[in-house]
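Recall that a protein's primary structure is simply its ordered list of amino acids. Everything else, from secondary elements to tertiary packing, is in principle encoded there. The following example makes that idea concrete.
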Amino acid sequence: MEAVVLLAFMAVAALRCAPAAAKLPRVEQPAKDDGSLSLLVVGDWGRKGAHNQSRVARQMGKVGKKLDIDFIISTGDNFYDNGLDGVDDDAFEESFTDIYTAKSLQKPWYLVLGNHDYRGDALAQLDPVLRKIDSRFICMRSFIVNAEIADFFFIDTTPFQLDYWTDPGKYHYDWRGVAPREKYIANLLKDLNKAMKKSTASWKIAVGHHTMRSVSEHGDTKELLKQLLPVLKDNGVDFYINGHDHCLEHISSRNSPIQYFTSGGGSKAWRGVFHKNKDKLRFFYDGQGFMSLQLKQEKARFIFYDAYGEILYKWRTRNMNILQPSTDATEE
Protein backbone atom coordinates (compact mmCIF):
# COMPACT_ATOMS: atom_id res chain seq x y z
CA MET A 1 0.00 0.00 0.00
CA GLU A 2 2.92 2.36 0.71
CA ALA A 3 3.95 2.51 -2.96
CA VAL A 4 0.37 3.19 -4.04
CA VAL A 5 0.00 6.01 -1.51
CA LEU A 6 3.35 7.58 -2.49
CA LEU A 7 2.37 7.68 -6.16
CA ALA A 8 -1.03 9.07 -5.26
CA PHE A 9 0.56 11.70 -2.99
CA MET A 10 2.72 12.94 -5.84
CA ALA A 11 -0.21 12.95 -8.27
CA VAL A 12 -2.43 14.91 -5.88
CA ALA A 13 0.30 17.44 -5.13
CA ALA A 14 0.79 18.09 -8.82
CA LEU A 15 -2.93 18.26 -9.51
CA ARG A 16 -3.68 20.76 -6.76
CA CYS A 17 -1.32 23.25 -8.35
CA ALA A 18 -2.28 22.48 -11.93
CA PRO A 19 -4.60 24.50 -14.15
CA ALA A 20 -7.95 23.07 -15.25
CA ALA A 21 -6.48 21.78 -18.50
CA ALA A 22 -4.07 19.05 -17.48
CA LYS A 23 -3.36 15.44 -18.25
CA LEU A 24 -5.38 13.17 -15.98
CA PRO A 25 -3.27 11.90 -13.07
CA ARG A 26 -2.78 8.13 -12.99
CA VAL A 27 -2.39 5.89 -9.95
CA GLU A 28 -1.09 2.34 -10.28
CA GLN A 29 -3.08 -0.16 -8.21
CA PRO A 30 -1.71 -3.72 -8.20
CA ALA A 31 -4.12 -6.59 -8.73
CA LYS A 32 -3.86 -9.87 -6.83
CA ASP A 33 -1.26 -12.44 -7.82
CA ASP A 34 -3.86 -14.26 -9.92
CA GLY A 35 -4.74 -11.03 -11.74
CA SER A 36 -8.14 -10.60 -10.09
CA LEU A 37 -9.53 -7.62 -8.18
CA SER A 38 -11.96 -7.25 -5.28
CA LEU A 39 -13.26 -3.92 -4.05
CA LEU A 40 -16.07 -2.18 -2.21
CA VAL A 41 -18.06 0.87 -3.29
CA VAL A 42 -19.81 3.25 -0.88
CA GLY A 43 -21.11 6.77 -1.29
CA ASP A 44 -22.82 9.64 0.54
CA TRP A 45 -21.50 8.66 3.94
CA GLY A 46 -19.71 11.35 5.99
CA ARG A 47 -21.99 11.96 9.00
CA LYS A 48 -19.70 11.23 11.97
CA GLY A 49 -21.22 7.77 12.28
CA ALA A 50 -24.86 8.92 12.35
CA HIS A 51 -27.71 7.64 10.19
CA ASN A 52 -26.30 4.10 10.25
CA GLN A 53 -22.94 5.16 8.81
CA SER A 54 -21.16 3.20 11.55
CA ARG A 55 -23.37 0.17 10.99
CA VAL A 56 -22.67 0.19 7.25
CA ALA A 57 -18.95 0.60 8.00
CA ARG A 58 -18.93 -2.48 10.25
CA GLN A 59 -20.55 -4.60 7.56
CA MET A 60 -18.11 -3.26 4.99
CA GLY A 61 -15.32 -4.48 7.23
CA LYS A 62 -16.78 -7.97 7.40
CA VAL A 63 -17.38 -8.24 3.66
CA GLY A 64 -14.00 -6.67 2.95
CA LYS A 65 -12.30 -9.39 4.99
CA LYS A 66 -14.28 -12.17 3.32
CA LEU A 67 -13.47 -10.91 -0.19
CA ASP A 68 -9.89 -9.88 0.63
CA ILE A 69 -10.49 -6.51 -1.02
CA ASP A 70 -7.76 -4.54 -2.73
CA PHE A 71 -9.26 -1.06 -2.36
CA ILE A 72 -12.42 0.95 -1.72
CA ILE A 73 -14.17 3.46 -3.98
CA SER A 74 -16.13 6.40 -2.61
CA THR A 75 -18.66 7.90 -5.00
CA GLY A 76 -18.60 11.28 -3.27
CA ASP A 77 -20.41 13.42 -0.71
CA ASN A 78 -17.67 12.40 1.64
CA PHE A 79 -18.46 14.95 4.35
CA TYR A 80 -21.86 16.38 5.25
CA ASP A 81 -23.44 18.80 5.20
CA ASN A 82 -20.98 21.17 3.61
CA GLY A 83 -17.71 19.37 3.00
CA LEU A 84 -14.66 20.21 5.08
CA ASP A 85 -13.82 23.65 6.50
CA GLY A 86 -10.14 23.03 5.83
CA VAL A 87 -7.41 20.43 6.23
CA ASP A 88 -7.61 20.76 10.03
CA ASP A 89 -11.37 20.08 10.19
CA ASP A 90 -12.06 17.43 12.86
CA ALA A 91 -14.79 16.02 10.62
CA PHE A 92 -12.11 14.29 8.55
CA GLU A 93 -11.22 11.95 11.37
CA GLU A 94 -14.69 11.85 12.93
CA SER A 95 -16.37 10.83 9.68
CA PHE A 96 -13.59 8.79 8.06
CA THR A 97 -10.62 7.64 10.16
CA ASP A 98 -12.65 6.89 13.30
CA ILE A 99 -15.45 5.13 11.40
CA TYR A 100 -13.80 2.83 8.89
CA THR A 101 -11.55 1.09 11.41
CA ALA A 102 -11.76 -2.57 10.31
CA LYS A 103 -8.45 -4.11 9.32
CA SER A 104 -9.84 -5.06 5.91
CA LEU A 105 -10.61 -1.39 5.19
CA GLN A 106 -7.02 -0.25 5.77
CA LYS A 107 -6.51 -0.22 2.02
CA PRO A 108 -6.41 2.67 -0.48
CA TRP A 109 -9.62 4.66 -0.68
CA TYR A 110 -10.13 6.35 -4.07
CA LEU A 111 -12.60 9.21 -3.81
CA VAL A 112 -14.36 11.73 -6.02
CA LEU A 113 -15.95 14.94 -4.80
CA GLY A 114 -19.72 15.27 -4.54
CA ASN A 115 -21.87 18.38 -4.57
CA HIS A 116 -21.85 18.57 -0.76
CA ASP A 117 -18.05 18.45 -0.80
CA TYR A 118 -18.02 21.46 -3.12
CA ARG A 119 -20.08 23.41 -0.58
CA GLY A 120 -17.08 23.51 1.74
CA ASP A 121 -13.38 23.94 1.10
CA ALA A 122 -13.14 21.61 -1.90
CA LEU A 123 -9.38 22.07 -2.12
CA ALA A 124 -8.99 20.67 1.39
CA GLN A 125 -10.02 17.19 0.30
CA LEU A 126 -7.52 17.38 -2.56
CA ASP A 127 -4.68 18.49 -0.28
CA PRO A 128 -1.85 15.97 0.26
CA VAL A 129 -1.78 17.09 3.90
CA LEU A 130 -4.75 14.79 4.56
CA ARG A 131 -2.62 11.82 3.46
CA LYS A 132 -0.36 12.57 6.44
CA ILE A 133 -3.37 12.22 8.75
CA ASP A 134 -4.72 9.11 7.05
CA SER A 135 -2.71 7.65 4.18
CA ARG A 136 -5.72 5.75 2.80
CA PHE A 137 -7.48 8.91 1.60
CA ILE A 138 -6.71 9.47 -2.10
CA CYS A 139 -9.00 12.14 -3.52
CA MET A 140 -8.61 14.07 -6.77
CA ARG A 141 -11.00 15.86 -9.08
CA SER A 142 -10.60 13.50 -12.05
CA PHE A 143 -8.01 10.76 -12.32
CA ILE A 144 -7.33 7.20 -13.45
CA VAL A 145 -6.65 4.15 -11.33
CA ASN A 146 -4.85 1.56 -13.42
CA ALA A 147 -5.56 -1.78 -11.75
CA GLU A 148 -4.04 -3.98 -14.44
CA ILE A 149 -7.15 -5.78 -15.75
CA ALA A 150 -9.28 -2.66 -15.24
CA ASP A 151 -8.94 1.07 -15.73
CA PHE A 152 -11.11 3.12 -13.37
CA PHE A 153 -11.84 6.63 -14.67
CA PHE A 154 -12.81 8.88 -11.76
CA ILE A 155 -14.77 11.87 -13.05
CA ASP A 156 -15.55 15.20 -11.39
CA THR A 157 -19.27 15.45 -12.20
CA THR A 158 -20.37 18.32 -9.95
CA PRO A 159 -19.29 21.11 -12.38
CA PHE A 160 -21.51 19.58 -15.09
CA GLN A 161 -24.72 20.38 -13.21
CA LEU A 162 -25.72 23.85 -14.37
CA ASP A 163 -28.07 24.62 -11.46
CA TYR A 164 -25.15 24.68 -9.05
CA TRP A 165 -23.75 27.62 -11.01
CA THR A 166 -26.89 29.54 -11.95
CA ASP A 167 -29.23 28.84 -9.02
CA PRO A 168 -27.18 27.79 -5.97
CA GLY A 169 -29.75 29.15 -3.52
CA LYS A 170 -28.33 29.48 -0.02
CA TYR A 171 -25.28 27.38 -0.85
CA HIS A 172 -21.82 28.52 -1.87
CA TYR A 173 -19.85 26.26 -4.19
CA ASP A 174 -16.07 26.33 -4.17
CA TRP A 175 -15.27 26.67 -7.88
CA ARG A 176 -11.58 27.48 -7.40
CA GLY A 177 -9.63 25.64 -10.07
CA VAL A 178 -12.83 24.92 -12.02
CA ALA A 179 -14.26 28.19 -13.34
CA PRO A 180 -14.94 28.99 -16.11
CA ARG A 181 -17.30 26.01 -16.33
CA GLU A 182 -17.44 25.55 -20.10
CA LYS A 183 -13.66 25.44 -20.52
CA TYR A 184 -13.23 23.09 -17.58
CA ILE A 185 -15.79 20.61 -18.90
CA ALA A 186 -14.48 20.78 -22.47
CA ASN A 187 -10.92 20.05 -21.29
CA LEU A 188 -12.07 17.26 -19.01
CA LEU A 189 -14.08 15.54 -21.75
CA LYS A 190 -11.15 15.86 -24.13
CA ASP A 191 -8.74 14.35 -21.61
CA LEU A 192 -11.15 11.54 -20.75
CA ASN A 193 -11.73 10.68 -24.38
CA LYS A 194 -7.99 10.56 -25.06
CA ALA A 195 -7.25 8.44 -21.99
CA MET A 196 -10.09 6.01 -22.65
CA LYS A 197 -9.00 5.52 -26.24
CA LYS A 198 -5.49 4.64 -25.07
CA SER A 199 -6.73 2.17 -22.48
CA THR A 200 -6.00 -1.49 -23.22
CA ALA A 201 -7.52 -2.80 -19.99
CA SER A 202 -10.03 -5.65 -20.13
CA TRP A 203 -12.56 -3.51 -18.27
CA LYS A 204 -13.24 0.21 -18.50
CA ILE A 205 -15.13 1.56 -15.52
CA ALA A 206 -16.23 5.16 -14.99
CA VAL A 207 -16.88 6.52 -11.50
CA GLY A 208 -18.67 9.77 -10.74
CA HIS A 209 -20.80 11.25 -8.01
CA HIS A 210 -23.90 12.16 -9.96
CA THR A 211 -26.40 9.75 -11.39
CA MET A 212 -26.46 9.02 -15.08
CA ARG A 213 -29.67 7.02 -14.81
CA SER A 214 -31.71 6.73 -11.60
CA VAL A 215 -35.26 6.07 -10.46
CA SER A 216 -34.73 7.74 -7.09
CA GLU A 217 -34.96 11.34 -5.86
CA HIS A 218 -32.48 13.04 -8.20
CA GLY A 219 -33.34 10.97 -11.26
CA ASP A 220 -31.28 11.24 -14.44
CA THR A 221 -28.67 13.99 -14.74
CA LYS A 222 -29.43 15.59 -18.10
CA GLU A 223 -26.06 17.30 -18.44
CA LEU A 224 -24.23 13.98 -18.04
CA LEU A 225 -26.53 12.24 -20.50
CA LYS A 226 -25.83 14.95 -23.07
CA GLN A 227 -22.11 15.59 -22.52
CA LEU A 228 -20.48 12.66 -20.73
CA LEU A 229 -22.46 9.60 -21.81
CA PRO A 230 -21.49 9.88 -25.51
CA VAL A 231 -17.80 9.75 -24.50
CA LEU A 232 -18.41 6.64 -22.38
CA LYS A 233 -20.32 4.90 -25.16
CA ASP A 234 -17.82 5.81 -27.87
CA ASN A 235 -15.01 4.32 -25.82
CA GLY A 236 -16.69 1.09 -24.79
CA VAL A 237 -17.01 1.83 -21.08
CA ASP A 238 -18.56 -1.18 -19.39
CA PHE A 239 -19.91 0.29 -16.16
CA TYR A 240 -20.77 3.72 -14.75
CA ILE A 241 -20.74 3.75 -10.94
CA ASN A 242 -22.13 6.68 -8.93
CA GLY A 243 -23.69 7.90 -5.72
CA HIS A 244 -25.80 11.08 -5.20
CA ASP A 245 -29.08 9.24 -4.82
CA HIS A 246 -29.09 7.68 -1.35
CA CYS A 247 -30.00 4.20 -2.47
CA LEU A 248 -28.71 1.10 -4.22
CA GLU A 249 -29.71 0.42 -7.81
CA HIS A 250 -28.77 -1.24 -11.07
CA ILE A 251 -30.07 -0.02 -14.43
CA SER A 252 -29.16 -1.45 -17.84
CA SER A 253 -28.98 0.74 -20.93
CA ARG A 254 -31.43 -0.27 -23.64
CA ASN A 255 -29.29 1.03 -26.50
CA SER A 256 -25.74 0.12 -25.40
CA PRO A 257 -23.94 -2.48 -23.28
CA ILE A 258 -23.26 0.02 -20.48
CA GLN A 259 -24.55 -0.75 -16.99
CA TYR A 260 -25.37 1.89 -14.35
CA PHE A 261 -24.79 1.17 -10.65
CA THR A 262 -25.74 3.53 -7.82
CA SER A 263 -24.08 2.98 -4.46
CA GLY A 264 -25.09 5.99 -2.39
CA GLY A 265 -26.39 4.33 0.77
CA GLY A 266 -23.45 5.00 3.07
CA SER A 267 -25.55 6.80 5.70
CA LYS A 268 -28.81 8.78 5.45
CA ALA A 269 -31.32 7.16 3.08
CA TRP A 270 -34.98 6.10 2.79
CA ARG A 271 -36.09 8.99 0.55
CA GLY A 272 -39.36 7.34 -0.45
CA VAL A 273 -39.14 8.58 -4.04
CA PHE A 274 -39.48 6.51 -7.21
CA HIS A 275 -39.43 7.80 -10.80
CA LYS A 276 -39.88 5.64 -13.87
CA ASN A 277 -36.87 5.40 -16.14
CA LYS A 278 -36.52 4.86 -19.89
CA ASP A 279 -33.79 2.26 -19.43
CA LYS A 280 -34.20 -1.18 -17.85
CA LEU A 281 -34.40 -1.18 -14.05
CA ARG A 282 -32.93 -4.41 -12.68
CA PHE A 283 -32.73 -3.58 -8.98
CA PHE A 284 -33.67 -0.76 -6.60
CA TYR A 285 -33.36 -0.54 -2.83
CA ASP A 286 -34.34 2.71 -1.13
CA GLY A 287 -32.09 2.22 1.86
CA GLN A 288 -28.60 2.08 3.32
CA GLY A 289 -25.86 -0.26 2.21
CA PHE A 290 -22.90 -0.68 -0.12
CA MET A 291 -21.67 -2.67 -3.10
CA SER A 292 -18.88 -5.11 -3.84
CA LEU A 293 -17.26 -5.75 -7.20
CA GLN A 294 -15.12 -8.77 -8.06
CA LEU A 295 -13.28 -8.70 -11.35
CA LYS A 296 -11.41 -11.22 -13.40
CA GLN A 297 -10.28 -10.71 -16.96
CA GLU A 298 -13.26 -12.60 -18.34
CA LYS A 299 -16.03 -11.82 -15.83
CA ALA A 300 -17.39 -9.34 -13.29
CA ARG A 301 -19.61 -9.90 -10.28
CA PHE A 302 -21.58 -7.22 -8.42
CA ILE A 303 -23.30 -7.66 -5.04
CA PHE A 304 -25.40 -5.16 -3.07
CA TYR A 305 -25.56 -5.46 0.73
CA ASP A 306 -27.81 -3.72 3.24
CA ALA A 307 -26.75 -2.10 6.53
CA TYR A 308 -26.88 -5.49 8.25
CA GLY A 309 -24.63 -7.20 5.71
CA GLU A 310 -27.47 -9.14 4.10
CA ILE A 311 -27.13 -9.75 0.38
CA LEU A 312 -29.88 -7.93 -1.50
CA TYR A 313 -28.92 -8.57 -5.11
CA LYS A 314 -26.28 -10.27 -7.26
CA TRP A 315 -25.43 -9.73 -10.89
CA ARG A 316 -22.64 -11.02 -13.06
CA THR A 317 -21.52 -10.61 -16.62
CA ARG A 318 -18.79 -11.85 -18.92
CA ASN A 319 -16.40 -9.60 -20.76
CA MET A 320 -17.95 -8.93 -24.15
CA ASN A 321 -14.51 -8.55 -25.71
CA ILE A 322 -13.61 -12.11 -24.74
CA LEU A 323 -16.82 -14.15 -24.65
CA GLN A 324 -20.49 -13.64 -25.36
CA PRO A 325 -22.18 -11.90 -22.42
CA SER A 326 -23.85 -14.08 -19.84
CA THR A 327 -25.74 -12.54 -16.96
CA ASP A 328 -27.30 -13.87 -13.80
CA ALA A 329 -29.24 -11.85 -11.25
CA THR A 330 -30.83 -12.77 -7.94
CA GLU A 331 -32.87 -10.59 -5.63
CA GLU A 332 -34.00 -11.04 -2.05
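The longest strand covers residues 299-306. Confidence is low (pLDDT under 50) at residues 9-21.
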